[in-house]
Design goal:
The chain is an alpha+beta fold. It has helices at residues 5-13, 19-27, 73-80, and strands at residues 32-37, 44-51, 57-64, 91-94, 99-105. It has one domain: Phosphorylase Kinase, domain 1 (2-Layer Sandwich). A hairpin with a 5-residue loop joins β2 (44-51) and β3 (57-64).
């Protein structure tokens, strides 16, 4: 069976990515399409893509939480802030006992 463009690009996005994150990224394909990845950060990974239905660009941040709920502070805090200069959390979930993720709009040239 021939592979699609998406099939041929996704494996290169996984260089050095934890196995649990790789498996989760593959399950996101019905909601978000992953187009690119940022370099590995201090406690996780960031992928860029878009919503499959709305086509809105998103950033998906995976972070190590290791079962410690206090490490959900970043998405919890962002979800409470309502300001035009702060990205809104579109989605957040626990992936497994090691990883969690949250999704925000992706802004070109953003920080």
């Amino acid at each position: 069976m021939p592979s699609s463009d998406a099939d041929s690009t996704v494996p290169s996005l996984f260089d050095g990515v934890a196995t649990g994150v790789q498996a989760s990224v593959l399950t996101l394909s019905n909601r978000w399409r992953i187009d690119d990845a940022a370099s590995h950060g201090a406690n996780g990974y960031v992928f860029f893509g878009h919503n499959c239905i709305t086509k809105q660009p998103v950033a998906i941040k995976y972070y190590a939480w290791l079962g410690a709920s206090e490490l959900h502070r970043e998405p919890a805090t962002l979800s409470r802030i309502q300001h035009p200069n702060v990205l809104q959390i579109e989605h957040a979930e626990v992936v497994d006992n090691e990883w969690a993720l949250f999704v925000t709009p992706h802004l070109n040239n953003g920080d």
